[in-house]
Amino acid sequence: MNIAILSQKSSLYSTRRLSEAAKKRGHSVRVIDTLRCYMNITSENPGIHYKGEDLRGFEAVIPRVGASITFYGAAVVRQFEMMGVFSVNESVAISRSRDKLRSLQLLSRAGVGLPTTGFAHSPDDVQDLIKMVGGAPLVIKLLEGTQGIGVVLAETKKAAESVIEAFFGLKANIMVQEYIKESGGADIRCFVIGGKVVASMKRQAPEGEFRSNLHRGGSATLIKITPQERAAAVKAAQIMGLNVAGVDILRSNRGALVMEVNSSPGLEGIESTTGKDIAAMIIEFIEKNAKPHRTRTRGKG
């Protein structure tokens, strides 16, 4: 099978592992810089060009689209779909999951457990917004932030007011979330492939920090998840329409709460923690599902 990996760097751990796993299973693989792709948008013969070359002949594409290039990356994936190429994650699903507010609204509509979240536009509504999520301490998140960047824990009402007003003053889009104290600065990353949780790990924030992201110095350990957590992770990925997803869950007094659904989850942390060959599992999923014009929009909204 001829597989394309959309990634800005072939040296990145996840890109390298996917490439190795595909080659090991006898496939032809090529890493393509998403931002160097340009498109011929026509109804008769849509195409993608890359550094002067017409890209054709791929049977599957694995999007590793960074959050900072979501708009362009989704357009490139969509063009591959128009050409009949199977995409591990569809363009619509990637865009849907990357919009933090939209994804939470879709999960909420489906009855998935979530931290209470508030969203507003006017500084005049700050007081009621804070009250809505249960008061301080609370978490303030930039809608465009990734890997824990743009996430602030406000421990007092005064601090929350100041931070929210500062973000509003910068015309930044933010959401305000209840702080799940009982999670103890830890979350669970569930790795979902084809509607099944294939691996999971607990990520613990370092001392004095509440963000558990491994990029921010968090540590990862093996964990056995509950049937409720497993079901929540699978349902969240299905609602987003993602075949491959990293679903982040908080343990709370009222059960599993989905915090985020990631369409390009990193492989390094989950593979090194669990010892599982996640890259090979993704390639195996492609082998079973990749057919011409197989892509279809999943999920809702």
Annotate the secondary structure layout.
Layout: E1 2-6, H1 13-24, E2 28-32, E3 37-40, E4 47-50, E5 53-55, E6 60-63, H2 70-82, E7 86-87, H3 91-98, H4 100-109, E8 117-118, H5 126-132, E9 138-142, E10 151-154, H6 157-169, E11 174-178, E12 186-193, E13 196-204, E14 219-222, H7 227-240, E15 244-252, E16 255-262, H8 268-274, H9 278-289
Helix pairs in contact: 1-9, 2-3
Can you walk through the features of this model?
With 301 residues, the chain is α+β, with helices and mostly antiparallel strands. The chain has helices spanning 13-24, 70-82, 91-98, 100-109, 126-132, 157-169, 227-240, 268-274, 278-289, and strands at 2-6, 28-32, 37-40, 47-50, 53-55, 60-63, 86-87, 117-118, 138-142, 151-154, 174-178, 186-193, 196-204, 219-222, 244-252, 255-262. The two termini are 32 Å apart. The chain has a five-stranded antiparallel β-sheet, with helices on both faces. Strands 2-1-6-7 form a four-stranded parallel β-sheet, sandwiched between helices. Strands 8-11-9-10 form a four-stranded antiparallel β-sheet, with helices on one face. β4 (47-50) and β5 form a beta hairpin.
